[in-house]
# Entry
Amino acid sequence: MKKTIALALAMALCLWALTAPAEETEIPEEIRQEIEAAQAEADAQQAAEAAPSPAGEWYTEISGLAVTLTLKEDGTYLYDIPALPGEPEKGTWEWSDGYVRLDGEDDTLFSFGGDRLACQPLGLFLTREPAETYAPAEPDPEVPPEEYSGYWRSAYIGLNGAAMESYGLDDTEIYIEGTTAALGGSIFGDAIAGFTFENGGLHYTGEGMSIRLEYQRDGLLRLTAEGGDAPLVLYLYPDYPETAADREAAAEMTKLKELMIRCYRYALGREGAKEEIVYWVERVVKDGKTVAEVVHEIFSSVEYQNRKPGNEETVKALYLIFFDREADEGGLDAWAGMLNNGETLEKVIEGFSESEEFKALMGKTE
# Structure
């Protein structure tokens, strides 16, 4: 339309020049301004038609999940995060003055730079190339169980076959030694679980939950927990302590947790709550108490004394707590005899804690 107007004005100018007297060759200012304005509009329209269109596929990722924005030629769009349930979001879009606006809303105003769309209010930056996201690898059933040992920290949460970054959402940590795993974080709390190695992975079943650990071909560890409303899938990466001292401290923490779990189980006849286990472990780690001192405190508690244990029952419990085994006949007679002859329980507990068998169990042999 603008080109048509400019052409008409140009023809009018030519006609005026042909019919005007020879001595009047200067173009009137009013006609000159109209011609220049029409030409400028025609040039602007031509430039806009030649500029690249934002229509087409645009890609980005949000917390590791692939995102696609499709701007269709007919003025409609699709906004899709395939890993999330439900249909893609639909609406209309318009383009003017270098900006793309979705549904006429200012908070979905994207600046268009040819190869990039940027929406500052939403923190979205899209390009024409699909975003790189983590694709979980297949489990490797040939990895031996000893390769599972070490420290692991969550990196991704499984979501409908995709993987979403877990930073800020999950703080799961696992320390695996042999077939025993210490699980920590907001999901599992502080728990100790004994696993079995079968079918190319570590398995645990108990307390209304089953957990499977699988070593993937990309070096990450896949954790699948079932027992709630829906399975939980985590992908964990190796998180190696910086020094040997760090590794020893973490291993000691695991051993202490196991010890306190046994203490509640065999001395008090019940499972200790997470807060109770953590409390006693911290008495040793942070307050400087010895293992013998905290165990003696538990045995001196009203809860234990209300069970009215005899000396043999007490010694049997100490064997299970300190040695993680049943008492042998000779040992049972010897320790129970000491109590029967007036030795204090405090000294007997101290004797168990200083034994070579207990030191070996705690990994403290010289």
In short: The two ends are 94 Å apart (CA to CA). DSSP finds ten helices and 18 strands in the chain. The longest helix spans residues 244-267.
